[in-house]
């Protein structure tokens, strides 16, 4: 074998090695959206790249959002260095120069993502804790642009549990704990309205601050309930009180969970029985 042939093979192997290193994956640990209007949102995120992947000296990043095979939207952020830290973690934030604005191209896929995420009564949450959001990474052959392809179809549903209930006359206060094992965050920043539904009728109205946060979030709602309401009722999102129209007005209406409004009565009965037992002793 000639020296030129060996050199040519080495060059080919080197090119194949470089090409292999320009494709990888990132585990996303923070993904935040903020609506701008009915058809756009801004995004910021962070995550850890797989060890074999090197971003290189890119000067722009393209972020693409999918729901399965449906393209939700994309944005290209120009003139931005993407420099991982020493743990190979990358953070992309919005600022005065980079708004990171995404135009929603497919609202069906976007809604499906929130359908999967928001609490639903009777939902099976058995396998949700094992779901993760990842981004497929690739760098163009010229080394100028990084592309992140994020599939939002693999998101965990938020779990909702009742932590407190107080009914006094027609006034009602509900304390909920929302547990979100996904890295997704969405701040509403204004109060949201909720309704209590039973037998296809509205039997109560409440409002309070609401947001989607990773980890655990305590949501307190206050309002009124009709006389004589008992048993299980459905708490549903009704309205997002924003000054401007945005797709978050649709998102809040996907919220749904069941609450037993007899819990207050049950606690009272238990306390009375305990007091009666101590008195008899």
Number of separate structural domains: 2
**Stretches where pLDDT falls below 50 for ≥5 residues?**
16-21, 265-273
Order of helices and strands: HEEEEEEHEEEEEEEEHEH
Number of helical runs? 4
Provide the gyration radius in Å: 25 Å
Task: Kindly report how far apart the N and C termini lie.
Answer: 102 Å
DSSP, total strands = 15
Q: Helical content, roughly? A: 10-25%
The assigned structural class equals alpha+beta
Calculate the mean pLDDT score and round it: 87
What is the assembly state of the chains in this entry?
single chain
**Major pleated sheet:** 7 strands, mixed, barrel
Shape verdict: elongated
Strand content: over 45%
Spatial order of the strands in the main sheet? 1-2-6-4-3-8-7
Which terms summarize this structure?
alpha+beta; 15 strands; seven-stranded mixed beta barrel; Immunoglobulin-like; 281 residues
Describe this structure in words.
This protein has a seven-stranded mixed barrel with strand order 1-2-6-4-3-8-7. It has four helices and 15 strands. Helices cover 18% and strands 47% of the residues. It has 281 residues and is an alpha+beta fold. The model is unreliable at 16-21 and 265-273 (pLDDT under 50). It has helices at 3-20, 107-117, 248-251, 263-280, and strands spanning 23-35, 40-49, 60-67, 70-78, 89-92, 101-104, 134-139, 145-151, 159-168, 171-180, 184-198, 201-212, 215-225, 232-240, 256-260. The chain folds into two domains: 3-151, no CATH class; 159-264, Immunoglobulin-like (Sandwich). The radius of gyration is 25 Å and the shape is elongated.
């Amino acid at each position: 074998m000639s020296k030129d042939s060996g050199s040519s093979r080495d060059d080919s192997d080197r090119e194949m090695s470089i090409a292999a290193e320009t494709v990888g994956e990132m585990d996303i640990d923070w993904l935040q959206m903020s609506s701008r209007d009915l058809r756009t949102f801004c995004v910021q995120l962070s995550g850890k790249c797989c060890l074999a992947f090197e971003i290189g000296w890119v000067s722009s990043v393209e972020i693409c959002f999918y729901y399965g095979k449906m393209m939700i939207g994309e944005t290209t952020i120009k003139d931005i260095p993407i420099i991982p830290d020493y743990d190979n973690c990358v953070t992309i934030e919005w600022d005065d120069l980079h708004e990171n604005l995404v135009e929603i191209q497919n609202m069906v896929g976007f809604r499906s993502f929130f359908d999967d995420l928001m609490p639903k009564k009777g939902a099976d949450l058995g396998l949700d804790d094992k779901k993760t959001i990842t981004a497929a990474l690739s760098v163009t052959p010229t080394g100028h642009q990084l592309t992140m392809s994020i599939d939002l179809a693999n998101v965990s549903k938020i779990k909702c549990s009742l932590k407190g209930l107080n009914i006094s006359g027609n006034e009602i206060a509900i304390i909920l704990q929302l547990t979100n094992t996904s890295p997704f965050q969405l701040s509403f920043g204004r109060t949201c309205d909720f309704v209590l539904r039973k037998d296809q009728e509205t039997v109560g109205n409440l409002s309070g601050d609401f947001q989607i946060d990773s980890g655990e979030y305590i949501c307190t709602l206050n309002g009124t309930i009709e006389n004589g309401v008992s048993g299980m009722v459905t708490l549903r999102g009704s309205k997002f009180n924003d000054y401007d129209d945005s797709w978050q007005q649709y998102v809040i209406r996907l919220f749904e969970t069941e609450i037993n409004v007899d819990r207050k009565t049950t606690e009272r009965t238990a306390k009375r029985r305990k007091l009666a037992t101590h008195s008899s002793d």
